[in-house]
Amino acid sequence: MALFCLFFLIYIGLVAILFWQLRSLLKTGLGDVSNIVSSGIILFVLILVYRFPIGMVRPEDFEDPPIFVAIREGAANCSTQILFKSNQRFEKKSMCFAVERSYGTYAIHGDSISLFFDTDTTYAKVEISETGETLKYHRMAADSLPFEMKIYRNELNH
């Protein structure tokens, strides 16, 4: 939050500098080329930041598309997604009041998939149903109440 406030103050400062430059341009006339160029650059930067507040380059454009997608919709529009990539990596994304991402590797064992998280020694297990439409996500090895998730894409090689 503090970083957002800092960026917002910098943006407001650039707007103030632009107005100062434009006021100076109106006083001196259009003869000062450096003032025109600097005003144009500041205006261009302000427009870009306003138009693309989180950046122009999206990391998703450079990643492999997922070969397996399962989603669980919970209470209050909270959801959990599991995305498996072809390079034996996965991403677990929980979205409720904030986005929480976990990454790791996976290993396929018949109709179950073992998940090994990068950040800690947590182990999870996923079991695909016989119909192939849902899966059960066990948060721990001894989880007796797994989450049931709907499978939206399944291109895994069993």
* Count of individual helical segments: 2
Q: Main beta sheet, described?
A: 8 strands, antiparallel, barrel
H/E topology pattern = HHEEEEEEEE
Secondary structural class: alpha+beta
Strand content: 25-35%
**What is the typical, i.e. mean, pLDDT?**
84
What is the C-alpha radius of gyration, as a whole number of Å?
25 Å
Distance between the termini: 44 Å
Low-confidence parts: none
User: What percent of the residues sit in helical stretches (DSSP H or I)?
Assistant: 25-40%
Strand order of the largest sheet: 1-2-3-4-5-6-7-8
Any idea what the shape is? elongated
Count the strands?
8
Describe the protein's architecture and organization:
The protein has 158 residues and is α+β, with helices and mostly antiparallel strands. Helix content is 29%, strand content 35%. An eight-stranded antiparallel barrel has the order 1-2-3-4-5-6-7-8. Helix 1 (2-28) packs antiparallel against helix 2 (33-51).
